[in-house]
Amino acid sequence: MKQNYLPRVADKALDAALEASGAELVEGAKWCGKTRTAHEKAASTLFMQDPDQSAAYLKAAATKPSLLLRGATPRLLDEWQMAPVLWDAVRFAVDERGERGQFILTGSAVPTDNATQHTGTGRISRFLMRPMSLFESQESTGEIALGALFDGQKEVEGLSSLTIERLAFALARGGWPAAIGANAHVALRQVYDYVEAVINVDVSRVDGIEKNPARVRALLRSLGRNVSTLATIGTIRGDMATDEASISEKTISQYINALRRIFVVEDLPAWSPALRSKTALRTSRKRQFVDPSIAAAALRATPERLLGDFNTFGSLFESLCIRDLRVYAGAIDGEVFYYQDKAGLEADAIVQLKDGRWGAVEVKMGAGEIDAAAQNLQKLQAKINVEKMQPPVFLMVLTGTELAYRRADGVLVVPIGCLRA
Description:
It is built from 14 helices and 14 strands. It is of the alpha/beta class.
């Protein structure tokens, strides 16, 4: 029986994109729900991976790709990158028709370089879809809206129902739509199967270059151990030495790039604000997966193991919070960064909107760390040169605790189980 559709944060973004552009490209990791969400909007659909039709579709694409574009609009072209010529065919059709909302393209891999003849600028807009946030999986109450905080809401109230045990499970299960609501054993098994497919098939298929599954497995485990850190390629190579002593840094970089192209890896960029005094900032990207369950599965970190290893749990909890912040920020035209300077001051997340408004977030799983996190955020605020940029709209400690409230110093304490876009 087909699973009921759970509304996605991406729904409104896709509607807006179709109103503004001739075509919309929805990218993201396999299994994150791109096809289902796009199918809900589409009036007709072309499934390039349909085993009964795939060969015929590829022949049509090679001879007369416009045949594949016929159908009621918006027409969904699922896994379009199997026939990259469809990109240029869509661009041309959009120009010829002169109408908006004609096509939706979905893809779980970035095509090889020069696979398309035109960027699609002005015709095809892009949207990155991520796995489900806790609000989309109906595990966050959504009592606190990130958008409302940016609009000036100062007071927050909320009560999360997510216990530490439930957080551990939600983290290990991930935000994969097919796993939401499934039996716990089945849901976790599905994530393991997903990671095995990445290791044995997907990472090689993306560029046609065969990759050693043992090395891919060792790399994923190392990235899992170094998630939410600034680990260099050299550090990762050293960490992998137990399993793969002979691998070079160049090969590791190639493997990571392949993982990035199938949207498994999504590192967090650094933020560069205007500061009152000259302070050297970290500029490298922080290691992250698109979903924390990938790290948990690679490490075989079951919910029970996470509850017995709070160091790993804490790192992966930060990764879960970054995933959700990215989903929510994307819905309000924002991006997520991290801040760290060489004096040791850091903020786990900076959410910045396109109009320049921003908020700083520290991620702390337990209540005992909230005071120190709030002090760090205030130190960061004091460093900002408000003559050159806006002060923060909010300072937030994002937690795994139950209660949402505003501290006397103005810092917001928000459980991840209360947040939404």
